[in-house]
């Protein structure tokens, strides 16, 4: 590493700071950039330098976009009565794979994590409420909210907090918003022998008629 030219070393050191990238992978990426055609490298540098400037949060769902409203919220063919809540944009992209879901999203950009001093006010929960109920008319704007936070301790805590907020909205109402949670359990092709107890418990809880 010490024998590398200074600029190449700096590029490699930057890559090494990225998640999942070790020293050898960082060196390979730096050398790959060095071998790129000059024009491609300039384009790449331009994209990186403009990344934050051209990327912002959708003012409706908090998805990442270059416009005020993202393409999903702007799509008139989507089901506007259903909102799926995800922790981050990568989760949204997973949900969009295969066209299995036609509703809208709300991106929290995090989850409740007291050990790291992240509370409900540090993530996008308050911006969700006006999408559920019109505060002026007290009318429900959606029929279902799907909680799709991750099935770990922090994800469950976040889902429970949001569920409680939504249950408060449902109190003393004839018309209620349906609150659902993604089902979890055995994956296709999975083997019971290697499943942990939480996976098995969820699989039992989410069992259905056959």
From TrEMBL:
One of its GO terms (biological process) is DNA recombination. SUPFAM superfamilies: Recombination protein RecR (SSF111304). It holds the Pfam family Toprim_4. InterPro entries: DNA_Rcmb_RecR (IPR000093), Rcmb_RecR (IPR023627), Rcmb_RecR_Znf (IPR015967), TOPRIM_dom (IPR006171), TOPRIM_RecR (IPR034137). Coiled coil: none annotated. Transmembrane segments: none annotated. SMART domains: TOPRIM (SM00493). It comes from the Bacteria. Residues 81-187 form the Toprim domain. Keywords: DNA damage, DNA recombination, DNA repair, Metal-binding, Zinc, Zinc-finger. A zinc finger (C4-type) spans 58-73. GO terms for molecular function: DNA binding; zinc ion binding. PANTHER family: RECOMBINATION PROTEIN RECR. May play a role in DNA repair. It seems to be involved in an RecBC-independent recombinational process of DNA repair. It may act with RecF and RecO. Belongs to the RecR family. This is Recombination protein RecR. It comes from Candidatus Roizmanbacteria bacterium CG11_big_fil_rev_8_21_14_0_20_36_8.
């Amino acid at each position: 590493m010490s024998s590398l030219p200074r600029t190449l070393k700096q590029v490699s050191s930057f890559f090494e700071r990225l998640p999942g990238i070790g020293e050898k992978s960082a060196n390979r990426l730096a050398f790959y950039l060095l071998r790129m055609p000059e024009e491609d490298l300039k384009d790449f540098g331009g994209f990186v330098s403009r990344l934050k400037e051209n990327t912002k949060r959708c003012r409706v769902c908090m998805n990442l976009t270059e416009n005020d409203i993202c393409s999903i919220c702007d799509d008139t063919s989507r089901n506007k009565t259903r909102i799926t809540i995800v922790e981050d944009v990568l989760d949204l992209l997973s949900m969009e794979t295969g066209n299995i879901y036609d509703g809208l999203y709300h991106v929290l950009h995090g989850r409740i994590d007291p050990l790291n001093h992240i509370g409900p006010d540090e993530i996008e929960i308050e911006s969700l409420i006006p999408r559920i109920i019109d505060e002026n008319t007290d009318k429900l704007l959606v029929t279902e909210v799907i909680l799709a936070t991750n099935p770990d301790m922090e994800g469950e805590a976040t889902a429970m907090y949001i569920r409680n907020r939504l249950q408060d909205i449902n109190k003393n109402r004839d018309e209620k918003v349906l609150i659902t949670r993604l089902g979890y359990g055995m994956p296709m092709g999975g083997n019971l022998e290697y499943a942990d107890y939480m996976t098995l418990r969820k699989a039992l809880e989410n069992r259905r008629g056959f």
